[in-house]
Structures are given as C-alpha cells and as structure tokens.
Amino acid sequence: MPDSGYVHSLFSSIAERYVLANHVLSMGMDILWRLRVLECVSEWRPAHLLDVATGTGDLALSIKREFPEIDIVGTDFCESMLQIARRRGLEQTFCADAMQLPVEDGRFDVVTVAFGLRNMENYASALQEFRRVLSPGGHLLILDFSMPRGIVLGAYRLYLHRILPLMAGWLTSRKEAYAYLGQSIEQFPRGEKMLQLLRDTGYLNPTSLPLCGGIAAIYTAEQSCEPNATSVTG
Ligand SMILES: C[S@@+](CC[C@H](N)C(=O)[O-])C[C@H]1O[C@@H](n2cnc3c(N)ncnc32)[C@H](O)[C@@H]1O
Questions:
Q1: Number of domains in the chain
Q2: Segments forming the whole domain that contains residue 39
Q3: Whose CA is nearest to atom 27 of ligand 1?
Q4: Is the pTM of this model over 0.90?
Q5: In a domain, 37, yes or no
C-alpha cells in the first residue's frame, strides 16, 4: 500500500498543476464521473457531507453548486491542495490525515472520497474511520480508478504505464508521480474485492457501478442504523 510520506510530498509538489493535469489526463472523463456522484447524492439528500481527500475541491465544489443547501466540509492532509480548494470557493475545510479525523462519531450523513482512498496507507483503517464519522444509516461513496476487463485491458495498460507518465511529465514536471498512479491503480482492490473489503470493515449493502467500461468505478455502502455501530464485523 502507498507510503503516506511519499503521497504527501507528491501532492504538495503538483498542487498548482493538479486540476489541469487531472482533466487532460482523464480526457475530461473525471467531470462525467463526478456527475454520476451527484445522482447518488441527490437520492440521499444529506444535511452534512464530508468530502475526504478533497484535494483541490473538485467533487466538493460540484456538490455544493448542485445542492447549495448541504453543509459540505472538505478535508485533506495536504495543506497546499486545500489552499487551492479554498481559493476556488470551498468555504469549510480542515487539514488532517483521513485515518485520524478530528471529528466526533456520527457527525456526517454522507462521506465521499474521490481518487483518495487508493492513496492511503491502510484501506481498511481508512474505511473504518469513515464509518466512525458516519451517522446511523449514513452513506459512503468511493469514486476511483479501476482496471477494465477483456480485450481493452492491454491497450489500457499501455496508456497507463507508458503514455500517461510521458504526458504527465510534460504537464506537471513529475513524470514519476504518474508512474506511481499506474502502480496504485493496479494494486487497488476492484469489483468484488472492494465489496468484500467494505463488508469486512462493517458496512452494509455495498454496491459497485463500473464507469467507462471499468476504467473507474463508484462504490457505495451504508453505515448501520444502530447508533454507535462502529465495531468491525468481518
Ligand atoms: C488524486 S487527489 C484527489 C483529489 C480530489 N478528491 C479529486 O477528486 O480531484 C488525492 C488526494 O488525496 C489526499 N490524500 C492522500 N492520502 C491522504 C490521507 N491519508 N489523508 C488525507 N488526505 C490524503 C492527497 O493529499 C490528495 O489531495
């Protein structure tokens, strides 16, 4: 799993170019994927939402634009990413490690994490921490890269491991950052493995929605309706 010191220095160094690089390298698809997240949020209509690993605030800001009535807080452990999020209009932010959030139990109705969990040192510990801050019956949503299946897999690996680091080196001057991206995507649990991880960390009713043929996926899961149900079951 990723080393958090490396991940912190990586995002600190690319913060200023992150938004542009993100949209170019995903060919704008990240914008469409965030629209799918809005559909989930519109079903749940939370009063309080925490966007973990909010980075430069893309997801939190798009939720805020669509649902101005929701109280949205963004958190990240990289202050230089958060500074950009604030500059772009995200009003409520705090700097913290996602595995130790300075937040009371059950504070949020929804926790979202886009392209963040994959970068964390321990996926299970992070998922348990998100569950701790969810209210009874609250919802978790994870948006992240995945790997497609079938004949496109070879072409996708060529893009991920050869073409993308070259383009990223040109856009961010940190080619190795995007070599790391490819490795982290290969290692990140996908499909049934992620659903099992969610069950093992105590979530209910996990679902997965592959996007763009499996290049990305949205996972959702629920906190138990019992108050203080934060023990791990699996
Ligand atoms: C790829 S960016 C995603 C940013 C944003 N969610 C988006 O969709 O554009 C990953 C973010 O995760 C943050 N991150 C990684 N590990 C973290 C941790 N342990 N605690 C808090 N933030 C973390 C990084 O600082 C970075 O801002």
A1: 1
A2: 4-147+189-222
A3: 55
A4: yes
A5: yes
**Which residue of 3, 7, 16, 34 sits with most ligand 1 atoms within 8 Å of its CB, as the best mutation to test the pocket?**
7
Count, residues in the chain: 234
**Average pLDDT along the chain, 234 residues, taken 10 residues at a time:** 84 80 78 94 97 97 97 97 96 97 98 96 97 98 93 89 81 72 92 97 97 94 79 44
Name every protein residue with a CB atom under 6 angstroms from any ligand 1 atom.
Answer: 4, 7, 11, 22, 53-55, 58-59, 76-78, 81, 97-99, 114-116, 119-120
User: What is the spatial distance between Cα 12 and Cα 78, in angstroms, rounded to a whole number?
Assistant: 6
Q: How far is the CA of 230 from the centre of ligand 1 (A)?
A: 24
The answer to whether 221 touches 140, Cβ cutoff 8 Å, is yes
In sequence order, the 6+-apart residues with CB closer than 8 A to the CB of 139 are: 40, 44, 46, 109, 110, 111, 220, 221, 222, 223
